[in-house]
Amino acid sequence: MTQQTLPAALAAYAAPSGRPAPYELLADRDDGTVVRCGGSVAKAHAEDTDRDGLAVRMRIASARALSQVLLQPLRAEVGHVQGRPVSLWPYGAPVDPHRPEDAPWEPTARLLAALHQVPLRRLPGPVPPMRGPAKVARALRRLAAAPDTGTRVEAGAVRAAARTLPAWARGEAPAPAGGVLCHGDLHLGQLVRFPVPEGSWRLIDVDDLGVGAPAWDLARPAAWYAAGLVDARTWLRFLDAYRDAGGPGAGPPGCDPWPELDLAARALTVQTAALALAKAAREERRLEDVERLMVDACVRIATLPPHLEPASAS
Hints:
The chain is α+β, with helices and mostly antiparallel strands. It has a five-stranded antiparallel beta sheet with strand order 1-2-3-5-4, covered by helices on one side. A hairpin with a 2-residue loop joins strand 4 (about 80) and strand 5 (about 85-90). It folds into two domains: about 5-90, Phosphorylase Kinase, domain 1; about 100-300, Aminoglycoside 3'-phosphotransferase, Chain: A, domain 2. The chain is built from nine helices and ten strands. This is Phosphotransferase.
């Protein structure tokens, strides 16, 4: 008997009957395969996923303290399909990529502020470290393994920018102790409305959830702003909403946020540029305009002195 494809097997896992069912393939990447089957979504996580860590993160996502912040799973337990760890979620409507003017910047900021203020003692533990620095390390490894297609100068600039980061921010040493509950991989693709169609926004994807520096969750919009991908008005809307909601990761309202954000923004820029170069090399193509902006930002970062932790860090 022919084995089902992974998406078909995920659909059977998500279906109430547990039998083959119609499905929609939402994503099929190295880091996860995601299918929708009716009102349920099944995600097969990467083969090298830390399964014990994922089990803890699923229990955290199910905690009542996070019910208004994270989309909560249909099952707190991690399942297995074709040897891959699998999680099961209700379907939520994603951000519409074709309507950037409607992007929920302020709701995203308020969700982050709420996430960063959840007392860790109210969560099942022990809460693992946030995996943001590990993603920087993985991106640099992919760049190192990519074929040389004439991008040696750009790759050198990305590696030089990485050297301005402390070892822990490159994923090469343990992060400083302490912090708050962080998402670990925040971008607008990590939000859905639930229940569909007019429910509240919720954060999704708990693969990188854990304790860390709250500025890391602000890193992508900060890096995009610094690289010219997000305009000043949008950036300030996001930043002001986060601060007004009590978010601790960017300093108090009215103060310069960059002493808090500089490290995380540099790290996210390095990660994004490294992945862009590696992908372009594999596909034997030139960098796209957005990718080029992130590599150019690394060229500028490489000229800066090594990052110094703000005086408030401990």
